[in-house]
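I am still getting used to backbone structure tokens and would like to learn alongside you. To get us started, please write out a protein record for me. Start from the sequence, derive the backbone structure tokens from it, and show both lines together. Once you have written the record down, we can walk along the chain together:
***
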Amino acid sequence: MIDDLKAMAIFAETIKRGSFRAAAKSLNLSPSVVSYQITQLEQRLGTALIYRSTRKLSKTAEGEVLYKHAIDMLDNAQVGINKVSGHDVATGRLIITLPGSLSRDDLSRQLVEFSKQNPGIHLQCIYSDDRHDLIADGIDIAFRMGSMPDSTLNSKKLASKQRTLACSPEYYKMHPEPKHPRDLTSWNWLRHDLLPNHRELRKKGHKPYQVEIKGTVTANSAEAMVEFAILGLGISTLSHWLIEDELKDGRLIRVLPDWEAAPIPLYAVWHGNITECSNTRRLLDFLQNY
């Protein structure tokens, strides 16, 4: 029974991380030991628990049943340890990914506070505007901006982030002064490759206007788009928290200041099977009022 419990814990971590290698890294074991433990468990049970492929792992029907019980087992064990120890000290690793533009956002400051309150958690932050595969890359929580496609993952909207339509003064002077968003269709738009080829602008008392945008440059970095705009390459709806200083010192100017760019939603995305005392749940609860 003890061997089965150990193997169940390794099996649960493997499913959570999406690969033997990621589970081995999390558990400080070798991938061969992880694979051996699960294979031995399958042989003792007389059934396959995992479909193995070169790209990723997935649970069999029997694996799905056992995984739920393994998660419950680990959750109850952690609760018992916490009660006996007299305090609830979180330990382990928590891997998150978030857009690079949020390195200067309140979310990063919240992560700092979370880490100070939970020094036992090793918080690994991956700042990237590319969207990672949570299962394949062993990510616990992803923070994503923009629309959310249908997914088996859980998600929650945390905030709406302000964007500002801006360009450099030099680029602005190259065009007739715009009176309406329709006047911007011929401007060179700097585009983020994760966002659609249109921008919605809003003015109080008017219907929202959708501008179909065209441009010669696409980037996967919000910071790069800001730099391109400062250098006079074009116009863009830029993350407001990234350009406040540039607007103040005149390196960038607002275009059609009576029109507001539609805010972009910020979501937290995580795996469906998490426990109440997991580090994932701990961070999600911490961010309740973000």
Q: What stands out?
A: The chain has a mean pLDDT of 88. The chain has three domains: 2-85, 92-158+266-286, 160-265.
